[in-house]
Amino acid sequence: MKERLYPYLIFLPISRKEKVLRAIFGSKVPVDILKFSLKQGISEKIYQKDLINNLSYSNKTLIERLKTLTELEVLAEYMEKSVSASRTVWLKYYLLSDLGRWFALLLVEEANLSKEEKTEIIQNTFRSYMNWIKELSEKLGINGKDFSKIFEEEMNQPKLTNG
Predict the structure, then answer these.
(1) Mean pLDDT of 11-29
(2) In 5, 50, 74, 131, which residue has its Cα 20 to 30 A from 146's Cα atom?
């Protein structure tokens, strides 16, 4: 049986790539936090209280992982003032950084994405990858026209079918 391969791409910070990979994949907790963020919506706020209420980990474990993910810039941490009746409460929430979105997208099922989300993802991926290729090719002295030629050739190839 030939399985369809999916081209997962992830852009990692050079100086801390091993720390980031260990932090994400060294424990199930960060993966579950990312999956929770996907359920919320990739650009939506992730409230600390919702993570504590919905994931089956201790407060201490979740807070430690959230702190690590924030330090590694996978998440960005914010505070929000909530006023109800005569009480003011500060709520801690997180948003996925660009790096965090890349990791979350590794976990998402393609079928769960809308056409618009898929379009945005592929365009952003292509742009990021092309910027990386451009920078590297300039360092190596590779002519950009060679890449343009390859792109044109590949875009004009007949569609391959699985089977």
Answers:
(1) 86
(2) 5
